[in-house]
Amino acid sequence: MKIAIAGAGKLGIKMTEMLLSGDHAVTVIDKDEEVLQRLGSNYDIMAVIGNAKQTSLLKDIDINTYDYLLACMDKDEKNIVVAAFAKRLGCRHVIARLRDPEHMSQQDFVKEVMNIDYIINPDYAITHEIYKYLVEKYTISNGELVTGKIGLLEFGANKLPEVAGQPIANIKSILGDILVVAISRSGKIIIPRGDLVIQADDTMYVAGKKDLIQPLRKRVHEGGRFTNLHKVMIAGGGKTGHYLSKLLSEYGAAVKLIERDKARCQYLSAHLENVLVLHGDATDLELLEEENFKEMDAFVSATGYDEENLLLALMAKQNGIEDVIAKISRESYTGLVESMGIDMVLNPINISANYILRLIQGSNLIVFSQLIQGQAEFFEFIADEGMLLADKPISRLDLPLGVIIAAIHRGTEVIIPSGATEIREGDRVIALCLLSAIGELEKLFRMRKGLFG
């Protein structure tokens, strides 16, 4: 496919990496010559210096021959205009990144009037994942996801005392033909190796035949609601804090939102109902103590600074708050999480890029997808004999460290794979992949003569 990206910021660069792994032709448009030179030296792209709002530029690159344009510049208004212009000039599909709540509250109208195919919002996407975690507790609905004859189950290892202290390699001898596809430990999703030892406070994700998974579910899951969420404190009154406060207050939680900018506090107070907006510095321990910080059921650090979010999350965890979530944009920081004990860390760039990639792939590849803890994705795809991953033992696929093949549907047969299993044409394959590894996985989806022939 031919894909144009207007805007070489964090999201634009991430999408470039992922799309090139899938063997697409990518054009990146930006006014910053230095950024484009750096991109051009690292990736096989067409770099176009200029303003994407100029229709002459869009015509010069023959935008009418492109399958997709993604507008992800710094302002919503720019993205709306560029996407609308590209669509009018003949681009088949256009995607615009919008962030302002005012635009999101009328996104259907914007799409219709401006003829934009898709709108994505990183802040709303990350808000949805946080809300789902806090309110539902289980990121797979009711802890179980069934596709065909295959079941995927999520549960705390403490529900099965016999697995605690056991290496992954021993689990089949305990649970039968069930594969442990992921572990959540201290807020970090891990794709396990055979020698990884399960700890009692781990969350386990397993795959197996439905007739094995459903009896296991009865052993490990309790009925009723999974959360007693009453009090939530949110640090940071930006867009994520705004969206999340609104959702949680509508759910019925008592929400305290801390924001250091006075004008922003006034805006939030005027636009949020049943939310206590506090003007102050969330790192001020005296303020936190005055607001009964330690009595919160959950704490979310969503300021605009990764370092501050990590510090606040660590403070919350050390003060005994049960659920602590941090918004972190730099992938290099996520490795700190495991040692800090934070319950969940979300990267808005990864979540948004994954969503856009699925839009672009459409029905050509992915049958379904399901994010878990905002860090990894279960998805099912149909194998084609021309794919690089077809007709080879899984052990020879050179899978990235963040990827595991969980199960295979082959006609009426269900296969829980081993290293010797081969993926064949027509197989419906369920895989789990860390969002940070999806770009690498896309290489295996390539056709031997290009992904889409």
CATH architecture assignment name of the largest domain: 3-Layer(aba) Sandwich
Radius of gyration: 23 Å
What is the number of domains?
3
Number of strands: 22
Rounded mean pLDDT score:
86
Task: Look up the CATH topology of the largest domain.
Answer: Rossmann fold
The percentage helix is: 25-40%
Strand adjacency order, main sheet: 3-2-1-4-5-6
The description of the largest β-sheet is: 6 strands, parallel
What is the CATH class of the largest domain?
Alpha Beta
Ranges where pLDDT stays below 50 over 5 or more residues in a row are 138-142, 449-453
Instruction: Give the assembly state of these chains.
Output: single chain
Give the name of the CATH superfamily of the largest domain.
NAD(P)-binding Rossmann-like Domain
How much of the sequence is in beta strands?
Answer: 25-35%
Distance between termini?
10 Å
Give me the number of helical elements. 16
The global form is: globular
Keywords:
Alpha-Beta Plaits, 453 residues, Rossmann fold, alpha/beta, six-stranded parallel beta sheet
Task: Write up what this structure looks like.
- The protein is of the alpha/beta class and 453 residues long.
- It folds into three domains: 2-120, Rossmann fold (3-Layer(aba) Sandwich), CATH 3.40.50; 231-346, NAD(P)-binding Rossmann-like Domain (Rossmann fold, 3-Layer(aba) Sandwich); 350-445, Alpha-Beta Plaits (2-Layer Sandwich).
- 34% of the residues lie in helices and 26% in strands.
- The chain has helices at 10-21, 33-42, 55-60, 76-88, 101-104, 107-114, 122-136, 171-175, 210-220, 239-251, 262-271, 285-290, 306-318, 337-340, 348-361, 438-445, and strands at 2-6, 25-30, 46-49, 68-71, 93-97, 118-120, 144-147, 150-156, 178-185, 188-190, 203-209, 231-235, 254-259, 275-279, 298-301, 323-327, 344-346, 366-372, 376-382, 403-410, 413-415, 428-434.
- The strands form four sheets. Strands 3-2-1-4-5-6 form a six-stranded parallel beta sheet, sandwiched between helices.
- Strand 7 and strand 8 form a beta hairpin.
- Helix 1 (10-21) runs parallel beside helix 16 (438-445) and helix 7 (122-136) packs parallel to helix 10.
- The termini are close together.
- The model is unreliable at 138-142 and 449-453 (pLDDT under 50).
